[in-house]
Design a protein that fits this description.
This protein has helices at about 20-35, 65-80, 85-95, 170-180; strands at about 45-50, 100-110, 120-130, 135-145, 150-160, 165, 185. With about 200 residues, the protein is α+β, with helices and mostly antiparallel strands. The chain has one domain (about 40-185): Thiol Ester Dehydrase, Chain A (Roll). Strands 1, 2, 3, 4, 5, 6 and 7 form a 7-stranded mixed β-sheet that branches. It is elongated. The model is unreliable at about 1-10 and about 190-195 (pLDDT under 50). This is Thioesterase domain-containing protein. GO terms for molecular function: fatty acyl-CoA hydrolase activity.
């Protein structure tokens, strides 16, 4: 008779290609890294590498980490939106494609190490600053297999009115949500310039 399977919390996810012990040790290191640097886990997302992520050089292709960062930003925005009572503002922040939402304006990515399959990446995102029309975010990609950061992105997101097809100002509840997650306010009548799109 087969023994009972271990609890899912104490093993690698079903179908994960990493050795379970390596996975758990890497996950613990990633969570510790996040905590030491103030990245909220409610805004983090774990992504397993896929065989097809690799390129001819046998490492994860350079475009893939940018997709991981995009997933991280979406997870971050959903975490902020969960705290917003206004249903329309919440839907817009989650990417409804209508009303006043978010549009991505700029990204700078630094490749710190190549990533190899199999691996799991913890995508950590937090906000740096918020102005009346823009938001800066930092994203770190942390490799379980290497137990180290493998990439870092700095991005700028803008408040955007999809119905009017132009930039707009953040709803005050969005600003509150970003500040609650560590954003420093700039340009709100404190003498600093407003961001432009």
């Amino acid at each position: 008779m087969p023994s009972a399977p271990p609890a899912l919390a104490s093993s690698a996810p079903i179908g994960n290609s990493q050795d379970p012990a390596a996975y758990l040790a890497g996950r613990a290191a990633a969570v510790e890294y996040a905590g030491e640097r103030g990245f909220p886990l409610e805004c983090a997302v774990e992504i397993a590498t896929a065989w097809g992520d690799q390129d001819a050089n046998a490492h994860v292709n350079n475009v893939v980490p940018l997709r991981w960062c995009e997933t991280g930003r979406g997870t971050f925005m959903r975490a902020v939106a969960r705290d917003i009572a206004d249903e329309q503002v919440r839907a817009d922040l989650n990417g409804s494609g209508r009303g006043k939402g978010v549009i991505f304006g700029e990204v700078r990515y630094r490749y710190l190490r190549p990533v190899f399959h199999p691996d799991n990446i913890l995508v950590l995102t937090h906000t740096n600053t918020i102005s009346p029309k823009s938001l800066t975010v930092k994203t770190i990609l942390y490799s379980y297999a290497q137990r180290a950061p493998v990439g870092q992105a700095d991005g700028v997101l803008f408040a955007y009115d999809y119905d009017e097809a132009k930039s707009c100002e953040w709803d005050p509840v969005v600003v509150e949500g970003m500040v609650a997650r560590g954003a420093r306010k700039v340009g709100f009548g404190d003498g600093e310039g407003k961001a432009k799109l």
